[in-house]
Amino acid sequence: MSSGTVMSVNTGSRQQNPAPNSLDTGIHKGPVDHAVEIRDPGMRGDGPGSGVIGDYIGDDRHHGGEHQAVYAFAREELDHWESELGLTIPPGTFGENLTIGDYDVDSALLGEIWRIGEVRLQVTGARTPCRTFAAVMQHQGWVKTFTQRARTGAYLRVLEAGEVKAGMDLTVEFRPDHGITVSQSFRAATTQQSLLPEMVAAEPYLHPELRRRVEQALARP
C-alpha cells in the first residue's frame, strides 16, 4: 500500500479571530515537538471539537466533531503556495493538524484508511475554505483562488486512538474501489456541481454534508 510521512503535528490555542465579528479560533497552529494523543472527539458541538489533544476549535457548529476530527494537508501543496504567493509557509499555517510529506493527500479516496503508529484514521472529505482562513492568509480573493485549485487537504475521523508525532510513517491500509478522491468531492460541492450525482458511488463513505447535497441533486427532476 502507499505510504507517506508525518512531517509535523500541529495544534492551535484559543486566539482572537482575524475575521471581523467571528468567534475565537484555533486556526493559528504550530508544530509540537512531542507525541500528541489523537482520539474521537464525539459529535460536533457535544465534545471538545478537535480530535487532537491540545488543539482548540472555536466555531464548533462548522468545525470539528467526529467527521472532521483531524485535518491533514500535504507539505508539497504548502510548497506550491509558497512559490505561488512568494511567502514562507510553515507547517500548520493552513490550520492543518498533520502536515504530510510524500503522499498526495488530495488524491486520497473517500473512506480510505490511514495507519500512523497505533492510530487509524479514515478520510471523510474535503476542507471548505472560510473567511477565517481568508483573513489569516491576507491575500485578495483567497477563497476563490484556493477553491479553484481544488486541493484542500483532507478531513479524517478517528477509528483507533493513540499518539502521533513528527517523523512517523503513514501507511494506507485500505482504499475503496469507488475511485472518488478528496479533490473530486470538493469540486462536486463547489465548482462542478454537475458531478454531485456521481458521488453516490462513494457511499457509505460520504461526509454527512456532502451526502445531503448528493441527495438533493438526485431528487431534482
UniProtKB/TrEMBL annotation:
Residues 1-24 have a biased composition (Polar residues). PROSITE patterns: MOSC (PS51340). SUPFAM superfamilies: PK beta-barrel domain-like. Residues 1-28 are annotated as: Disordered. One of its GO terms (molecular function) is molybdenum ion binding. It comes from the Bacteria. Gene3D superfamilies: PK beta-barrel domain-like (2.40.33.20). Residues 30-173 form the MOSC domain. PANTHER family: PROTEIN YIIM. This is MOSC domain-containing protein. The lineage of its organism: Bacteria, Bacillati, Actinomycetota, Actinomycetes, Micrococcales.
